[in-house]
């Protein structure tokens, strides 16, 4: 070490007795372990003696389609190719809070918390997690109003283990008294947390569904009411599972797996399996259709409503916005930019198999609630008015961008595959959905439908040339200003649903809100007070 320091010091102050500076010659090539054998070959040239690389080629036959197979017991198996080391596999069940009309509300909430607990094969949740860890896996369960989803992401080599574990969790849970008691505590804590949370959005979402679908289907409580927590036990859960956890109401979905291998695993673990609650068939299934006095959003109106939701946009009063942040949406331009006292104004679109909701969530100081409501009713009225072509194209482009960006994620693709197959027994590819939204930036109206090879082919006499990207007004699926006006007018003819939370002293009456939404300008009726 001392010799090295001395050599460095001599180099800095000059080497040799006479103090002459060292002379540097041409640089010599250093022998690195990775590239010493080819010292004079530039990086832009191929190395001699190295085999020519083989790259993946696009031949038009890439298998992007979703494959669906129905087993003998009615269970559907769906898979989507996504190349990589890991896969996401899960079981989606057509069950949720909307099917609890004849049961205690909160069963689906309990089942979500009880997921991945002890089963006939696994003595505890820890044993399940240790099994998944061997394949680098994680698990999750989520329930919504119409779907319960058990999902696992793990190494694709552990597919057999993962499907076997999912079958255990779904069909053979023990539901012991100890686990149910722990779940009661977890549900109680979650309800308390919801009521203390500063963000009112989850509670408002519950309230708007209850107001729109009072006492039926998607209007039933998604969270377990506090009075039902001690009433839910193993007998109640088994009664519900017996009717709704049947193979014909299930989809085994996988992303990043071979379809044939997934079908083999499904036949091994899910075909002929006897569930923990017995093999008796379902006898009391609720097939009610959502009833909303404002009218049902039909399938052909789904895309126009999605575009309208993007066009309204909105958000919080504070945003580090910019391009793509929705700063040019109507609720930003007309509401948040003009009224500094508004905390939030955001459009939401809730869509279900047989119905849907388009709502605006707004918040402000309690003293300005009446003015806030009038501003929002005016925006609802303007939905049925003139639609600017630029804002419509921006909304369509943003919707397609959001759709494609979300589907970059493997878990999102898994959920999309499972939900679509569960509802329609098939899946529309993202490209097919985008063809229903077309805008000037991406729409090629000469290509209409998917062929078996994965390419689009021309099926009609569209007048726009093949390479020109433009909007053809004759092309089906192109959302036009008339479509936005039509769905908005149809929505406004119905009876509105209103939910409010907080200090409601200055909240207008429901009748006044209804009058404002029936008027031409959206103004609330004037009220006069003798004493102030």
Give your account of this protein's structure.
With 532 residues, the protein is of the alpha+beta class. The chain is built from 16 helices and eleven strands. It has helices spanning 2-13, 107-114, 125-133, 159-171, 177-196, 201-212, 234-244, 259-269, 302-312, 330-336, 369-383, 389-406, 410-424, 430-434, 481-492, 510-518; strands spanning 67-70, 76-80, 86-93, 138-143, 148-155, 250-255, 314-316, 342-351, 356-364, 449-450, 456-457. α9 packs across α12 and α11 packs parallel to α16 (510-518). The longest helix is centred in the middle third of the chain and has 20 residues, at 177-196. The chain is globular. Residues 4-22, 293-299, 320-324 and 440-476 have low confidence and may be disordered.
Oligomeric status of the shown chains?
Answer: single chain
Give the % helix.
25-40%
Percent of residues in beta strands: 5-15%
Major β-sheet annotation: 6 strands, mixed
The run of helices and strands is HEEEHHEEHHHHEHHEHEEHHHHEEHH
Instruction: Please tally the helical runs, counting DSSP H or I stretches of 4 or more residues.
Output: 16
Average pLDDT for all residues: 82
User: C-alpha Rg, in Å?
Assistant: 30 Å
The number of distinct β-strands equals 11
Unreliable residue runs:
4-22, 293-299, 320-324, 440-476
Q: Looking at the structure, what is the overall shape? A: globular
- The class by helix and strand makeup works out as alpha+beta
Strand order of the biggest β-sheet: 1-2-6-3-5-4
The N- to C-terminal Cα distance equals 90 Å
